[in-house]
Amino acid sequence: METSETGITRREFLGLAGGLMILVSVPRAMMEVAEGAAPAEDINAWLLIAPDNSVTVFSGKVELGQGIRTSFAQMVAEELTVPFSSVEMIMGDTDSVPPDGGTYGSLSTRTVGRRIMAAAAQARQILTDMAAEKWGVKPADLVVTDGRISLAKDPTKSVTLGELTQGERITHTLPAEPTLLPVSEHKVIGKPLPRVDGPAIVTGAEKFVGDLRVPGMLYGVVLYPPSFGARLVSIDSAEAQRLPGVVATVREDEFVGVVAERQDVAAQARDLIKATWQETRHPAQGSLYDDLRASGAPDGTVVNDASVPTALASAARSFKQTYRTSFLAHAPIEPHVALVSVTADGATVWVSAQTPFPHRDAVARALGLAAPQVHVFVPRVGGGFGGKENPSLAVMAARLSRAVKRPVLLALSRAEELTWDLFKPAALIDVRSGVDAAGRVQAWDCDIYNCGARGAEPPYGFPKHIRTLRCNSPLAQGSWRGLGGSANTLAIECHMDEMASELGVDAVEFRLRHLDNNPRLAKTVQAVAAKYGWKPRRAPTGQGVGFACAVDSGSCVAEIAEIDLDRSTGVLRVRRVIAAMESGLVINRDGITNQMEGAITMGLGMVLREAVRYENGKILTDSFAAYRIPTIKDAPAIETVLVDNPTHPPEGAGEPPLFPIAAAVVNAFFDASGKRVRQIPLLPETVLAALKA
């Protein structure tokens, strides 16, 4: 088995003979793990303190731009009191790290991150006990600072953490939660430390998969069908094979690929293949929401308070609306890329992925290998958003490499990325609600078609009955940042806004009167209102200001959006967003701020312009000219507020800020125009139609 770029295999790591090693276990209930994991608890990370006082953390999580390479190191440095620069992170290398299900769902910090931090605290306690025994004193007589343990009354008597191991192998598994350092003593956590990978990214020195070159490497392309679901009948590749530079055309069942000495030659040869396809009929995009409703079948119940039917029937006032969202593409700047080298001993895979171990297992199955024979390494990933969980590209690259017995680089073009990736599900959400004579919500009844349960339950303290329905989708669907949470939040927060306006109640006050059950969110709502200088109002005011909030991944978020509306063209521009988030203990203030700004900007694409268009089984939005993601010139002024809650463990921060922004913008449109729109994106033609209604 080849070694990774770290120069160490997992087998070699387990045989290391020096330093203190803490095995970090995360309960299975907290996160998914890869195939073959232990049935109860799995070792999800290793922490090693070497005799030279350097610290290495091994984790199956990968760096996608969320900054965990930096924040994980901060957590370890803090609890061990060592310099931040002395902590090295080894991530996403299946030969050097323990199994992990993948990096998604804002889980990294709130699962593995917390446990790594606890492991560092455990290591500090273990070494303190060792020093106390060595010197014949009590642990309470010792202090740990700057990676050294000293006698409190005689600082000249000290030893580094690493020196205490005396080169011996000392292994512990993290037990019950150890005692963490008090927040008042934090010197690294909570600070806006620069990202460790920042200089390499901004200077262009960072290596992505597409930058890699290995001896003997060839380039591959795939022959995709002319429409979704088309079946290959026959191919004639003779002309393609005669093209100079073509190494092979490969067909395995429905899979057809070309391997050549150059990328352009491979693409040219693919165009020369004469293929016959059997295509199928596809539903029209215009009937999408009718088709979703017609095909909806019960999938699950999110919550079922028994009082809802009676409360709805007896409500002083009732409300009923339907909300719709479109299919969306992931559209990462870096498309899917995989470089695979299959040899007689196994396979090495470099891939832009969120799920190294599931990728390893998928390639192993495709090649008929045992999982340990496949080594997956994930370098820096240029954006994933849920789209890089699918291992199909790595499997195709492995097939091509096996066929030619040389390494093959396979990269999707922009058109292929926007066509053959999985899409964020379109959503159809029916909401029925009822309020009493005092204007308090007494019942919430909801049917959610096609987008799932993430974020489906309103964070408010009224009775709810919420069901999800699975539907027949015309497009292949998959994870997208926050799953269905942004669509569900759109329905929740737009409906709350509609009720508040119809009842003549201020939008913020209406939320707060229903948040007795959630003081963390109430505090976050109050924080964003204070930052904005919110004054009680009844929408519409003509000012173009909208509010929305949400809870996800343990974090609370509240956002206010200001818009400019051109009534002649229908162009809506977001000029300012105020966002507050409470995510427990803040590890890196700049990191969380960056996540908030990025998520909000991505959400603006969802609400203003992004929508996958398709007809006859073909994607029409297959370029950035047709599928327009937000750019820097589209970004509004974004002001962020981090609501401190240091006694609460750190929570997920990558996805929650995305959830409320669409609803805040839609509510701002109503405030500006007095017209309700319940389907996004708010394209100019949609806005003009609403203004004329």
Q: Measure the end-to-end span.
A: 67 Å
Number of distinct beta strands:
28
CATH architectural name of the largest domain: 2-Layer Sandwich
CATH superfamily of the largest domain: Aldehyde oxidase/xanthine dehydrogenase, molybdopterin binding domain
**Secondary structure category:** alpha+beta
User: How would you write the strand order of the largest sheet?
Assistant: 11-12-9-19-16-17-18
What about the largest sheet?
A: 7 strands, mixed
Which fold name fills CATH's third level, the topology of the largest domain? Aldehyde Oxidoreductase, domain 4
Shape: flat
Integer count of domains: 3
Please, how many helices? Answer: 17
Beta-strand content estimate: 25-35%
Rg estimate, integer Å: 27 Å
Low-confidence stretches: 1-8, 29-41
Secondary-structure blueprint:
Elements (H helix, E strand, L loop, with lengths): L9 H5 L4 E9 L13 E9 L5 E5 L8 H13 L6 E5 L17 H27 L6 E4 L2 E4 L2 E7 L8 E5 L24 H6 L14 E5 L8 E6 L1 H5 L3 E7 L2 E6 L2 H10 L1 E5 L9 H8 L1 E8 L3 H6 L3 E9 L11 E6 L4 E5 L4 H12 L6 E4 L14 H13 L3 E4 L2 H7 L6 E9 L5 E9 L14 E7 L14 H19 L3 H6 L6 H14 L12 E8 L2 E11 L6 E11 L6 H20 L5 E2 L2 E2 L17 E6 L15 H16 L10 H9 L1
Parallel strand pairs: 1-8, 3-4, 9-19, 17-18, 21-22, 25-28
Antiparallel strand pairs: 1-2, 2-3, 5-6, 6-7, 9-12, 10-13, 11-12, 14-22, 15-20, 16-17, 16-19, 20-21, 23-24, 24-25, 26-27
Helix pairs in contact: 2-3, 9-10, 12-16, 15-16
